[in-house]
Amino acid sequence: MSSRSRQSATRTRDKWKEKTWYQILAPDYFENKEIGTTPSGSPELLIGRTVQPTLYDITGDFEKIHVKLRFKVLEVTGQQALTSFYGHEWSSDYLRGLVRRGTSRIDWIGPILTKDDYLMRISVIVFTTTRAKTSQEHAARKDIEKVIRAHAKKHNFDELVTKVIMGDLASEVFEEVKKIIPIRECEIRKSKVLKGPEEVKTRRARLRRGTTSEKE
């Protein structure tokens, strides 16, 4: 190895020695499970970093490995990076495997506001056992929206995220939609946090000011 190569390798090793390894933890509502480790030269550099484990990493249930989660680092305490839920998504390969001939896929996507003012976008997918009529699809989407918005209105962010990820909310949607048409699968296939409470409050204040100005 040349002298220049040895110097470069030494510098690289020195940089790694200067870094500290941090344990990344899921939020309280996921029992603060470890979802990864990462090196950083400064705890401030971790703030805003996203981590993408699977639901299997949190629950240990291998059947949930297709559910990909996203968490964002909000705070660093000691050598622990604390996160908040940022969204989730089912793998496209898994969803394609649910498609059957002679059946229908019904989607609903919409923004919802939790009890404590988190703005989220939720995507629901329903697979029927028979071909759905247009009127049935329309009715199913109305019922999906009714269930989702009702839960968003009465639950805070932590509670709603748990219901979304652990399948409780999808089960309630299933029970409602099956009254319209026989279905074999219903899942919350995707979610994303769009705005936190402070951003929502700022937007409301801006809209109120705009309305007042128009009246004047």
Name the CATH superfamily classification of the largest domain.
Band 7 domain
CATH class of the largest domain: Alpha Beta
Q: Globular, elongated, flat, extended or rod-shaped: what is the shape?
A: globular
Number of DSSP-assigned strands = 8
Oligomer: single chain
Structural class of the helices, strands and pairings?
Answer: alpha+beta
Mean pLDDT: 89
Regions with little confidence, pLDDT below 50 for 5+ residues: none
Q: Please, how many helices? A: 7
Q: How big is the Rg?
A: 22 Å
Helicity, as a percent range: 25-40%
Tell me the β content: 25-35%
Q: Assign the CATH architecture of the largest domain.
A: 2-Layer Sandwich
| Sequence of secondary-structure elements | HEEEHEEHEEHHHEH
Written description of the protein model:
- There is one protein chain.
- This protein has helices spanning 3-18, 55-59, 92-96, 134-154, 157-166, 168-177, 197-215, and strands at residues 20-25, 34-40, 50-51, 67-77, 80-90, 105-113, 119-128, 183-195.
- With 216 residues, it is α+β, with helices and mostly antiparallel strands.
- It has 2 domains: 8-89; 98-201, Band 7 domain (Tetrahydropterin Synthase, Chain A, 2-Layer Sandwich).
- Helix 4 packs antiparallel against helix 6.
Task: Provide tags for this entry.
alpha+beta; 7 helices; 216 residues
Describe this structure in a few short sentences.
Helices cover 40% and strands 32% of the residues. It has 7 helices and 8 strands, in the order H-E-E-E-H-E-E-H-E-E-H-H-H-E-H. The protein is globular.
